[in-house]
Amino acid sequence: MNSAELQRVLNWLIDGAWSAQEPAEMIADFCERLVAAGLPLWRFGIFIRTLHPEIFGRNFIWRQGEDVEIGSVDFDVLDTPEFAQSPLRIVFEQSVEVRGRVDDPNSKRFPIVDDMRAEGATDYIAVPLPFLDGSTHATSWMTRQPGGFSDDDIAAIRAIIAPLARVSEIISLRRTAEMLLDTYVGNRAGARILGGQIRRGHNDTMQAAIWLSDLRGFTALSDRLPAEAVVTILNHYFDCQVTAIRGHGGEVLKFMGDGLLAVFPIDEYVGDAAHVCAGVLEAARESRASVEALAIPVGDAVERFRFGVALHVGNILYGNIGGGNRLDFTCIGPAVNLAARLEKITGRLGRTVVASEGFANVCRHDWHELGEFPIAGFSKAQRVYGLADETYAQVG
């Protein structure tokens, strides 16, 4: 391998691989530079473990002449026979290099060597990718060169690891921040925070459809069931809503015990209020069906559930609110307050879905007028609407 060309690749990495905008582009550029420098690379993989409640890691696979494949694996992979027999398991657990050659009898313990032989590959090496936080990630390098990688090739790969690890860690940290913000505050809020809206007073006014829901009988449920069972119930219950909300363009801003606050932004310049609200209503119908079908065994009994959701549309103040150095990215305003009051009416009326007059006027539907109700904090009584296909008897 040409040492001068290798140094150019190292300098490119040290400079931050600035010519590439996305990770997949960076990996493709990186591999093509190495091949041009004389490394007989046919396949390259980089495997980054993630800080995510469901995803164990992400992988990027480059093959000569093909686009980079991007994938992810969940934690179930740790219990599979394939992972148990993979060189990457040894890399993750022991932080050591693992080599497999088609002409080496000792390499037969790795099933990947048979796959290599079928694809015409001759040599494979998995190399740890250490991050500064002490975590170990992995790279894999494969060649079709007769006789496999030379000693100079292996030395070049080892020389590349340190700068590759620094660039990968920077990219990984950015993605970890995005995933954590997405997990805990929502995608749009996370993007705003990463974009610099981190000070108290950084707020925007936004028109949105508002969703505020609550689980019926949660206080009594919490009193008679073990805490672990209540947590399990809440997680399944929220799953029934979050999938529908996100599937129709909404963002969950907050979980409040058994309550859920979500918003569906409306682009006032496009004039898509009717379309957005129609999606909100469909999400409410889907959630209703999912909650009605939810049955969780607890001891000798099976728990069934009902919930209520209020739908409203209006302007909200969206941004950082809090005290000292503890802020919350949320939304406030009279529209949110009205949605919260309407949600309480769902229980009084034995309804699952209720809508404000404003929402019903935007989302033309077969609504059933439920009457006018005085709302605490509002000078005028509010007209409330329900779905015509709900025929529950009025409660209290």
From TrEMBL:
Residues 209-343 form the Guanylate cyclase domain. One of its GO terms (molecular function) is adenylate cyclase activity. One of its GO terms (biological process) is cAMP biosynthetic process. It comes from the Bacteria. SMART domains: CYCc. InterPro entries: A/G_cyclase (IPR001054), Adenylyl/Guanylyl_Cyclase_3/4 (IPR050697), Nucleotide_cyclase (IPR029787). PANTHER family: ADENYLATE CYCLASE, TERMINAL-DIFFERENTIATION SPECIFIC-RELATED, BLR2264 PROTEIN. This is Adenylate cyclase.
